[in-house]
Records
---
Amino acid sequence: MDVSDSVLDHLRHVAALPDLSGTRYELECEIGRGGMGVVYAARDRQLDRRVALKVLDAALAGEAQLIARLEHPAIVPIYETGELPDGRAFYAMKLVAGARLDGYLGGSPSLGERLRVIRRIGEALAFAHTRGAIHRDLKPQNVMVGEFGEVYVMDWGVEAVAGTPAFRAPEARLDRRSDIYALGALIEFMLAAPGVAAAPPALRAVAAKAMRADPGARYPDVAALLADLERFQEGLAVEAWSEPLGHRLQRFASRNAVLLWLLAAYATVKLALFFWQTR
Amino acid sequence: MRGRFDPDTTMGGPHSHFPSTQLSLLEAAAAGLPDEALERVIALYWKPVYRFIRMKFRKDNEDAKDLTQSFFAAALERDFFARFDPEKASFRTYLRMAVERFAANGHAAANRQKRGGEVTFEPLEEQAAAGESPEAAFEREWQRQLFALAIEDLRAHCAASDKQIQFQIFEAYDLAGGERPSYAALAARHGIAETSVTNYLAWARRTLRMFVNGRLRGVTSGERELREEMRRLWM
């Protein structure tokens, strides 16, 4: 039989829609595609609330189990996992109201706010790594910033995910160090977004160290990267950058401004006293 | 709609239905069933190859048919599957490149000339109208044929399991070329509840998907390629 283009497109669409009969969910609309599945908005009839429903190939059902184990404030909570009548796996999760990171950056947040978001992403990654999970596809499209400023890392990966070129580490086999690379690329992306006049060289160095081609030359773990970010925020030298003397003095002056002002005032008073006594 | 074949390409012909749980290409080859695997390949790829040759090499209808037929005949004679390395490319890419090499070498054209045939070039209005590359046309035709075969599988399955009404509703709604009838109209036409219409449609779509995936399994090298193809098709 002949299948016209319009029928073909229709069939590809409707045959891919999840059959939710027998579940507590009612399909609303598609809201995204990523990693190895499609995400739909759905209504939970029992609890009368909207949820996000990710539908995966049956072979990837392990992803749902893996993510369900990750209970962290910066990881979208999973409500339920299940199987569709056609064998595909699904999981229902919190439907986050907010903006994707790339959209959020369009609002030109301050450097401090960007660093807060980066730290939250890093904390989620560090936690997941302690649970043996790897993201594999960290990128702006997989981070949501909620309406109250909460940060969620989404779309945790599975073995088959190959990553997104701009954020993917060069090594063939992805591991925790590959997530560190992606986090570095994300920092670079966030520093380059409009709203920050000139990215501090120390932060650029942190991103560059995380993105070294040789995994062994990157930060050994996410915690080490976060510690470097914390050092930057406290006005200390970061490990990733051997700063020039002028910059070091500038940073010292900036960090010890009060002390330097007191010393200057003390020296001024002493000088004044000296001249007054010798007059 | 059963039996409506493109008169230009009837040489591909209707093919028997394959079960949804087909052996992968490499499993079939390993099991000593390369001919069975090739038959599956021909059922799915005859039209895409024909269209690709017509567009890529600007062949007329008869030449394109001859080239397509010669290509698959040569594939039968040669160890076509043994040369396929799933590590290097998907089977679809491998096949398209093999067709390209075969047609470029002009084997079939030479054979046709030996038989005294005249080469005529027909205008390629459809190519100009669509504005798509031969490669894109090959891909599109492959998807079209994959669904056409799966629809025939579904039709046969419905006939064998006394589910004709499910197929009729699916055919009336999902295969409608123009405006789709409402669920209420379909329910009234078949004397069933509207919820039954949606349930039947959901069943038919789910089953169609199963047949599509089954056909895909039969023309891919194994689990990894199958998953890749499913992802490309459904996402």
---
Amino acid sequence: MAIVDATTYEAPGRSGSPVKLKERYENFIGGEWIAPTTGEYRANLTPTTGEPFCEVSYSGAQDIELALDAAHAAKEEWGQRSPAERAGVLNDVADAIEANLEMLAVAESYENGKPVRETLAADVPLAADHFRYFAAAVRAEEGRISEIDDQTYAYHFQEPLGVVGQIIPFNFPLLMAAWKIAPALAAGNCTVLKPASPTPWSILKLAEVIGDIVPPGVLNIVNGPGAEIGKALASNKRIAKVSFTGETVTGRLIMSYAAQNLIPSTTELGGKSPNIFFEDVMAADDDFLDKAIEGLVLYAFNKGEVCTCPSRALIHESIYDEFMERCLGRIAAIKQGDPLDRETMMGPQVSAAQLEKIESYVKIGREEGAEVLIGGNRPDVGDHLSGGYYFEPTVLKGHNKMRVFQEEIFGPVLAVTTFRDEQEALEIANDTLYGLGAGVWTRDGSRAFRMGRAIKAGRVWTNCYHQYPAHAAFGGYKSSGVGRENHRMMLEHYSQTKCLLVSYDPKPMGFF
Amino acid sequence: MRPAARDRRPAVGATPAALEVIERLRAGHGPLAFFQSGGCCDGTAPLCFKDGELPAGPHDLQLGEIGGSPFYIDAEQYERWGHPRFLIDVSPGAAEGFSLEGLEGVHFVSRTP
């Protein structure tokens, strides 16, 4: 039973909640709600209590084929719409998301466990903005003309790929969907989307909101087991590109399917991002220091379930004690509990499996000799939430060769160590399998630039962290994946380049 | 590739509960292969595929077999993890990714004994 007070949203389906709830949700195919051909559904749990709250389709490979049928039926018409018309649809989608901000934010929070103050301020507004950004970007696109000689010209056009397959992760179900859907649709493609198994539902609430705006077949959503429908989609001969966010082995599998079908793929596979604090952050007790402290504590954002979680803090040895003391004070003030409470700063992990993994890593860290500076346990969040998947924000002090510094825990666990000088900071930062994100904090602009260029990661936040504007490219170096998301460059990634090579010379070449 | 012998204990093993699931999956899907994953989301999970679904690459290390199925890990990942031994177990709740045991409503877990 939920305990609801003035700062807490009613859970979906309860009276007074902004979210209406059906008992059961089907697939969204061809603009309609279609029951899975399997006839099967699975209970969908909320991590707040571990209890089921609705049923969602448990589809089979045949349902992927139905979605692909719908997408292929829609692709010609959608691909031929003018950029202004496609942009109009995307802008309408953004308006609808914004008009349903509270509803979507509560749905997202309830299903994933992320605090509603994050979904209200970040996930859902950013999702809307991604659609607006790509609506604007596609209208500003233009091809290039190469002058080969004064009689011969190469005209370059971007043409849609056709139908794409997109597989999204559980950590930002709505925002990751927006990251993938917006550029694909803007570029004139139709998509078949497979949500993550732990979070199949909030995206269906989005489909309820935008289902009448997007033409039938342009956006299709099929839920079910990855081993069956993920494979059926990613290995399908009828997709022209596959995009995946998840772990490394499935990333390899996706790329091998793409290789077998000779299609492009985009993979984003996580990281172990260093967040580096130079001694000059403590040069004054001012807003900048306050921002840097928050920058370290951002490892707890979205309960650490972020591919770019700044999960390795590297702190200059001369400021370590004082800086860490300030940070630990801030971490101790993190309010955990019901994510639907607007005052909650950290909700539960997404699933029992994730919670179990996080606990096992803290145990591994302890056994490796890491010192637990704070946290390390399941918190007491009250009887009504006792079935939920909560874990304390945790800090482990150790060194970079420890496994807890090398593997992505995907939870609110920070591994912290010290460095002597810039060179050592850089060596530690780059001593990792991954290269997705990094943070650099210093008042010295030259050093910030040097470090930013030398760190082998796709995104180096400099004196900031966890900002995800649509106009900034995102993606990994090394084992963090191949390709990029965000930024208008995505329009190219979701297009084919057509070169029209035209001769205006009336004379033959003279070979034959 | 096979790892250099560091000690006499096998580098990978499986609990009786996991072996039971492996046996069931083999009966239903044919020969299997395991790959230790890393990275985002369900990153630390061991993934179970039909053998050949993901061809083992030149940089995959075969740590051993569980239930008669090869168990691979990326060599650099194994190095960076400090050559742990793995005990593959099974827990309730469907695997979140492409791993076959998800169809049975369970997920394999890599434990470090």
